[in-house]
Amino acid sequence: MTYSNILVDYQEQIALVTIDRPKALNALNTLTLQELSQVVEDLANNSSVRVVILTGSGEKAFVAGADIAEMNMKTPLEARTFSQLGQKLMNQIESLPQPVIAAINGFALGGGLELAMACDIRLASEKARFGQPEVNLGIPAGFGGTQRLPRLVGSGRASEILLTAELFDAQEAFRMGLVNRVYPKEELQEQALAMARKIAAKAPVAIQLTKSAIYKGANMDLISGQDYEAEVFALAFHTEDRKAGFKAFLEKSQTEFQGR
Ligand code: HXC
Question: In its keyword annotation, does this UniProt entry include Isomerase (predicted)?
Answer without folding.
Answer: yes
